[in-house]
Amino acid sequence: MVEYSRKATRIDEQLHILNARGLRTENNLENQQRLENIGYFKFKGYCLPFYEDSSNDVFIAESTFEDVYASYIVDQKLHRILYGLLSRIESQLKSIIGSKIALEYGPLSHYDEKIFRSSQYQADWLAALNVNENRAQERRELYVDHYKKVYEDKVPIWVALEMATLGTVSKLFSDIRPELQKEIAVEKYSVPYVYLASWLQFLTVVRNSCAHNNRTFGRKFSISPKIAKKVKNKCPELEYPTIFTVFYVISKVCKSRNFLISSIEETSSIFANTSNVDISKFGFPENWREQIDTLS
User: Fold this and answer.
1) What total of structural domains would you count in the chain?
2) Which domain holds residue 76?
3) Which of 36-50, 131-145, 156-170, 231-245 has the lowest mean pLDDT?
4) What is the 3-state secondary structure (H, E, C) of the chain?
5) Is the pTM of this model over 0.70?
6) Residue 165 counted as domain residue
7) Are 26 and 76 contained in the same domain?
8) Residue 4: what pLDDT?
C-alpha cells in the first residue's frame, strides 16, 4: 500500500500556505470561514488561473484572496443559471421528441426497431429504459405502475422520456433514424440534425458538470459543440468549449425566449456587480451580449 506522506492542515495553516505562495490574503475569521465552506482542495482549483505558471503554485503578483473567492462565487451563480436553462431545455426536448415519435409512429413505437438506426441502438434504449423504470419505481412514481398496467408492462414514449435523463434523451436523438432526426432538427430548431445532435451531447456534459458543482472558471469542457466556421469567424471565442459557448448553444435551442432573456440579464448583472472577476476566464468577450444577440 502506498503511504501518503502529507499531513492534514488546519484552515488557518491553509491560508498561511496560500499567502506564502504569493496570494495576498488576511488570515482572519471571515476568510477562514470562506475557505472552510469551500474546502481547500476545491479553492485551489480556482487558484489555477492566477498562477504564474501551470507547473508551479506561485501566484501572479497582486493576486488576492478576494479575487479568487469572487471568481468562485460568480462560478456558482452561473451554475445555477445554466442549470435552470438546461432543465427548461430538457423538458422542451422531451416534449418535442415524444410528440413527434408518438404522432408519426405510435405511442409504443420506441419498442420497435424501425425508428432506430440499428437493432443495437434499440437494445441500448430499452436497457436504459429498464434502468429508468426501476429508478422511478424506487422514487415511488405512481404513473409508472399505472401505465405499465394499462399498456401490458409497457409505457408510451412520453412516459419513457419523462423518466429519462438529458443524457439518455441525447443518445436517443443520436440513435433514431436520420429522417426522423432531420424532421425534428429542421422543423423545431431550424438547424441540420448533425448540429442538434452535437449540441445535445455538449449540453449533457455541461449539465452534469453543473450538477456535480465542478469548476468551470478558467476551464474548458471535455467536448466541443459543432459550430459553423462562419459563426466562429464572427466570434472567435466560440472556438473553445467554455461557458460563453454554452450560452451561445443554449440561445439556439431554448424555446422559452423570455426565460432566456431574463437569464442573460441576470448574468450581465452578476458581471457588472463583480468588477474584480475577469469574465474572459469564463470565455466571454467584452461584447458578449451583442455577440449572443447577433448570432442567435
Assistant:
1) 2
2) 72-295
3) 131-145
4) CCCCCCCCCCHHHHHHHHHHCCCECCCCHHHHHHHHHHCHHHHHHHHHHHECCCCCCCECCCCEHHHHHHHHHHHHHHHHHHHHHHHHHHHHHHHHHHHHHHHHHCCCHHHCHHHECCHHHHHHHHHHHHHHHHHHHHCCCHHHHHHHHHCCCCCCHHHHHHHCCHHHHHHHHHHECHHHHHHHHHHHHCCCHHHHHHHHHHHHHHHHHHHCCCCCCCCCCCCCCCCCHHHHHHCHHHHCCCHHHHHHHHHHHCCCHHHHHHHHHHHHHHHHCCCCCCHHHHCCCCCHHHHHHHHC
5) yes
6) yes
7) no
8) 63
